[in-house]
Amino acid sequence: MSVAQDEVPEVSPEVYLALERQTEEKNEYVDGHIVAMSGSSVDHDLISGDVLGLFLQQLGTGPCVVLSSNMKVRAQLKTPSTRKGLFAYPDLTIVCGEPTFHDERRDIITNPKVIFEVLSPSTEDYDFGRKRERYQGIETLTDYLLVAQDLPWVEHWERQPNKRWVVDTIEGLDSTLEIQTIDCKLKLADIYRRVSFPERTIQ
After folding, report:
1. Which single residue of 26, 79, 114, 122 could bond 2 by disulfide (Cβ 3.0 to 4.6 Å)?
2. Checking DSSP bridges between strand 176-179 and strand 184-187, what pairing results, if any?
3. DSSP secondary structure of 152-188
4. What span, in angstroms and rounded, lies between the C-alpha atoms of 139 and 153?
């Protein structure tokens, strides 16, 4: 998903949610600012769709469920300011056990376990920076995955038992992404099976 550069003046989470729930367009909320989301590319959707299928196949009828990009996730920072935090639409969200919600509307998850984002040129700084920092403040989150569109490449942030985060990079179509917390293995060749790369990117 792409992020437009213009941001409206600072608003409260309540104002954002009231506006967001009245429109069919998707907007995210970052530290008091509403950030407009633009359309995704074909490769973005192909990758997201195939990863969704791979997760559904491996998770089966177990305790973890996969949610699409239509479900928002809340990451609220523990600061005196109620406007510090994030409401976002991850490309895929995995919840294990009973989902918890922001309010009675049940359209905002507060206990994600795994978040999966497909990178776009206009979102890379956002996804690597402020968005990642906000996501990693969610106590239930164990894995944050950033997936490139233009080459077979995944950055995997994993929370350790001591609460620290470590990052691993998985590259090449012969490689496999392992998410131990949900016992899933995804071959990059399967993630990118419908994406064409320049010859130099295929190892």
Report:
1. 122
2. antiparallel
3. SEEEEEEE-TTS-EEEEEEESTT-EEEEGGGTEEEEH
4. 26
- Residue 94's identity, in one-letter code, is I
Compute the distance between CA of residue 24 and CA of residue 46 in angstroms, rounded to an integer.
22
Structure tokens at 124: 């890379």
161 has pLDDT over 90: yes
Instruction: Tell me the DSSP string of 28-55.
Output: EEETTEEEEEEPPPHHHHHHHHHHHHHH
Q: Is 128 exposed, middle or buried (0-12, 13-18, 19+ CB in 10 A)?
A: middle
Please check whether residue 110 is in contact with residue 75, taking contact to mean a CB–CB distance below 8 angstroms: no
The b/e string for 139-166 (b: 16+ C-beta within 10 A; e otherwise) is eebbbbbbbbbebbbbbbbbbeeeeeee
Instruction: Report pLDDT digits (tens) over 168-200.
Output: 999 999 999 999 999 999 999 999 999 998 764
Nearest CA among 148, 142, 146 for reference residue 129: 146
- ∠ at Cα 99 (57, 188), nearest 5°? 30
